[in-house]
Amino acid sequence: MGRQPCCDKQGVKRGPWTAEEDKKLISFILTHGRCCWRAVPKLAGLLRCGKSCRLRWTNYLRPDLKRGLLSTAEEQLVIDLHAKLGNRWSKIAAKLPGRTDNEIKNHWNTHIKKKLIKLGIDPVTHEPLANTKAASSQSTATDESAKSSNAKDELSLKEGSHREVPLPTDSSEQSSWPDSGTNICSGEDPELLVNWLSEADLCVEEPWLNSTSSNIEGPLPWDGATDWLLDYLDFGMCSSNSVDD
DNA sequence: AAACAGTCCAACCGCCTACCA
DNA sequence: TTGGTAGGCGGTTGGACTGTT
What we know:
This protein is an all-alpha fold. It has helices at 19-32, 40-44, 50-61, 72-85, 89-94, 101-118, 133-138, 144-158, 171-174, 190-199, 227-234. The two termini are 38 Å apart. The structure holds a DNA duplex. Keywords: DNA-binding, Nucleus, Repeat, Transcription, Transcription regulation.
């Protein structure tokens, strides 16, 4: 019988999103919240399929997103989590507030993978690569597990070890980290951060959605790419009672 | 200055799973 | 129980950008 396509391909726009489309999507979601994605394009006046809208929102427009390169600590965390979880990017992303699975996946494929290979670590198994120049030149240890951890440590050191480089301290970088009694986000003990993230089920369920536009104050957590939204909020284009339903 | 190669990342595709009637 | 639907996920692609020759 075959699966129906997620959207009618005819009359559906594809490719990069325009600022106008972004505005429409954000306006709709701020007003109505996230409802049935399939209905979103119609209701928001977009010639996109619902899937495309969802992707655009979750990967780019969500206000709680951090932008920019992953910090060393985040990168190390991704490596640790990948060793445990494999290519379950969404699970890994869930442990990195403000990061998307797509972002992490891209970063893994373009940066981390190469670094690991360079260091003689198999990016799939996280075991030392056998008979590679890198492996032999980077480490002479005979114990396999020791080699693995040595290489990992070296990665950290080479990239400015996460033990020494503090987490970003500016507010925009930290804005989406949950409040905690312990100073997890201070960057003083990334080890603690890693442990805590591994154990805790973080609640990153779009807390911003619970706030109204009228109480959004100070810098929003996303960067200049969506600066226009600041104007949008400033001009009161969305009603204050509409986002928390 | 132009051509080419390499890199990056937003967006798409197709499959899987959960949910509901 | 079954079939249809929607949302979510991971893999892949393609175009823009950057660096090199």
